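Title: Prediction job returns without error message
Component: structure pipeline
Severity: low
Priority: P3
Assignee: unassigned

Description:
Job completed but the reporter wants confirmation the result is attached to the right record. Sequence as submitted:
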Amino acid sequence: MNERSKIAQGFYVFVAGLSSGYALMPIYPSYILLTVAIATLFICTNLRVVRTNFLISVFLFVVFFIGCITSIQSIGNLTAVIKLQIVVLFSFVVVSTVKYERFVSLYITFMLIVSIVSLVLYTLVNFFDFNIHSYLPIIYNENDMGYYNGFVFFIFSSEYIQYRNTGFFWEPGIFSSYLTLAILLTKHVSLKRDLLITVILSLAVFSTYSTAGYILLLLALLAKFSSGFKTKVFILLFTFFSIIFIYLMSSEVIEFTRAYFPEVTNKFFVSESASIIDRVQSPIINLQAFLNNPMFGVGLNELNQIYLEKGDYAQSSTMTYYFGAFGVLGAFYTIMLLAGTVFTKFEKFDNFNGIIAFIMMLIILNKEPHMFFCFTYILIFYWSLKNVKEYK
């Protein structure tokens, strides 16, 4: 591979990151989508072979054609569908352009750089009381969330949540999700200083103070370090029943964690926690919309309008979002993921690690809205590419 190709592929990964929960995406969506669209056009003009299969082909049909049908309902639906089509097409052509191992190496490198930069700044701001962030401009997104803007790293402007490392992304939960996927993927490539990379990525997960991130980290490390199917099953079952036991039987442990780690654990015990309410209500609202129009769904924007009518809820369930927006064919989003993990012929996953990958994605895709996140589509496309067909 020549140097020009390496630089281009690194640029593709960076562009994918811009549409994967980047903190400035909600503030400058048109500019970032334009960047993604131009990158897509550039790749397409240099694309020699398209790699696809039945599942991906049907999914693309759903996004492009069923999406257009729902666009007839409103201009809002049309705008949302165009945005989704740009993201999905870019992700698809990247999979046809970049070999899997190369993408994984670039993705891990990207997350490692973000982790190192953010950890250094996080430590200076929170432990040494250096006001380095005060020299940065403050920006606000549509939810009135303020950030000190470093363009490739961000720090919350509110001192009440500055202890949470958000890295390159608009919220710490997204950062922790992509960090734990990077740890999972370290097993798919040969890396120098693999253990050091895993430690740095894990430290970054801890600095997010994301409850789900800690669970995902445990699963990623389990897939990475445990060997032998029986050993993996034993560790997984032991961990599961230990969590159940601690939750049901040990009030002392619960009080200890609430006292010393309130930022992480209180959402489990406070009934009005917005985080829990949103993640319970989101799939319910999506499935209700699906039942109203199971054939073609209600459309992307119409589903968002339903949320506004229901109350102050946030979309968090990506899987059920596809059902609500696209109807029964929206199931192909989940089918692709199942085929690429649980029922995989993908050589990088054995049966156990495929199940772990699916559980991780199940958590990630139902705690955050990944409908417009390139990194997520790219990974699902790679994993589900079995019985590959190539077209010139």
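Comment from assignee: result matches the submitted record. The two ends are 20 Å apart (CA to CA).
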